[in-house]
Amino acid sequence: MKTPFIIYCRAVGFYAILTLLMMARPETYLISMMYVLMYGWFACVIFSLMYFMLSKVPVDFVIKLLLLFISVIVAVAFAYYMIGVLAVGNEIWQPEFFIFPFAAIIAGWISVCLSREKIRSSCYATE
């Protein structure tokens, strides 16, 4: 139950580290971190739902990992879409903001990889 939340929290930390290069424009970095904290919950909910659906399906570890990677992309895309709908509209399509969804996906993938043993153990039946 807590694995998706741990993956999300770790991904937020990695996102903060990956986007540190944007500190050359501190206001952009701070806005992106604010959006992650405010709208990242959409991604957390979507990813958690997909994680729990996949935990019920008896598939091989590699397939489950691949599906979780795809889940990260879907979750980040939905959160980015919700930023556009609820907050800033077309302002998120400025070139300076294009790096942020890609950084979020990379951060999510890293976090999923760090939880691979927990994910692997969910692939096998327990008695």
Describe it for me?
The longest helix has 30 residues, at 26-55. It is built from five helices and no strands. Helix 1 (3-18) packs across helix 4 (99-114), helix 2 crosses helix 3 (61-88) and helix 3 packs antiparallel against helix 4. It has helices spanning 3-18, 26-55, 61-88, 99-114, 116-121. The protein is mainly α and 127 residues long. The chain starts with a helix and ends in a 6-residue tail after the last helix. The protein has one domain (3-121).
How big a fraction of the residues is strand?
A: under 5%
Anisotropy-based shape: elongated
The helix count comes to 5
Radius of gyration: 15 Å
Order of helices and strands: HHHHH
Stretches where pLDDT is under 50 for at least 5 consecutive residues are: none
Beta strand count:
0
Helix-residue proportion: over 70%
Distance between the termini: 19 Å
Q: What's the multimeric state? A: single chain
Largest sheet: none
pLDDT averaged over residues: 85
The domain count comes to 1
Protein structure class:
mainly alpha
SSE blueprint:
Layout: H1 3-18, H2 26-55, H3 61-88, H4 99-114, H5 116-121
Helix pairs in contact: 1-2, 1-4, 2-3, 3-4
